[in-house]
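Notes continue from the previous slide.

Worked example: a multi-chain complex. Inputs as given:
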Amino acid sequence: MLEVLLLSLRVSGTALLCSSLLGIPLGVLLGLSRFPGRRPIVALLYTGMGLPPVVVGLFVYLMLSRSGPLGRLHSPWIPPLFTPGAMVVAQILIALPLVAGFTMMAVLEVDPALLQQVRSLGATRWQTVLTALAEARGGVIMAIIAGFGGIISEVGAVMMVGGNIAGQTRVLTTAIVLETRKGAFDVAIALGIILLTVSLIANVAMLRLQGRSLER
Amino acid sequence: MKEPVYQVQGLVKEYGARRALALDYLEIWRGEICALVGPSGAGKSTLLRLLNFLEPPTAGSIYFMGKEFSAARPSMPLAWRRRVTCVAQRPLLLHRTVWDNVRFGLQLRGQRDGRAQVQATLELMGLTAMARQPAASLSGGEAQRVALARAMVLQPDVLLLDEPTANLDPYNVAVIEQAIQTLNREQGTTVVLVTHQIFQARRLAHRVGLLLDGRLIELSEVNTFFERPRDPRTAAFVRGEMVY
């Protein structure tokens, strides 16, 4: 059970980290600048925010399978199907639009007049961007929470691309499905409680961080 | 001999089809307080944004201490830009403490040790007791004092003030006006003050200019402006007869 919990945390944690590293800068870029092609990207992002995980799973499955366009490259950078790496890829695709989309909305909430004032106080373009991000920090933390919520409890995609292999790709959600099907409801309930607890602890930690940052 | 800090020549600013500003010539002199008055929509705030190098002009040039800012040269080097700071009508503070707001500009300049300056500025503006408070908890007048302190601590060559005391109570107006005068007198800071309130212009400024529909109608020494205006529109404005 511990092994399942640790793999869940490792897969979702890695996916969340990657989604945040990519999604926060993307959200800031879309929130602060206007460029040709921005609108289609935003439309794509909004669609991505409501993407059914099974569809993501199917897409990643087709991409990474041996005969798929990425799978056939046999690159050490591309994880094969039924590995934790493939699950991370699927979860990144689920969390990235959530993190980027909510970050963009948070940055859009920052008063443009405030940013002009920041420029007037002698900020470079880069310093202005960082200040906008700092002003939007409450929303950015919400974006990370949304991303985390979207993947820690997700089952469709990890089941498809991970395969729920014991000791290798079995995570909390897929284990719950399996145990329920087996009729082992006590184990399933225990796993469910662990999942809820993990989610609760992570959210409380992030909300505390958000609260502290907003008190200043 | 007055030394110009700004020389504005043939300056035009258009937003789409709307012409917001068209100034043939304007000089701002080193060490003066120059007030620009006029009704809403006269182009006063637009002029301040241009003098702050935040937007390039559509045509014409601004020479800031001899350095050109124009449509052809739309960016002012950072070191020059940092010699000018603006305080807006709304305080526009960051979601940080009062102290961190005042320290902000110094931080942007990489000055780690600005303690003494921040402390002295807070004291001057009567904000010492609120230093650790979140800026969001301040009243309108206090917030505006923080906004002014945040600009003053940088000791800019030029301070641009856009209606700095609009909607404030008399106490805060007095504190802010006094700070502006002290800064001008003791540090020789050039101040360009945009205001609706002609009495404030009269109290603070050395020279006063009237802007109407984006044009500078008259710019003269304060007593001349109020007592012997050259232009009939200035006379009407001073008498409060101009309807807007």
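Summary box: Chain B has a mean pLDDT of 93. Residues 4-238 of chain B form a domain with the Rossmann fold fold (CATH 3.40.50.300).
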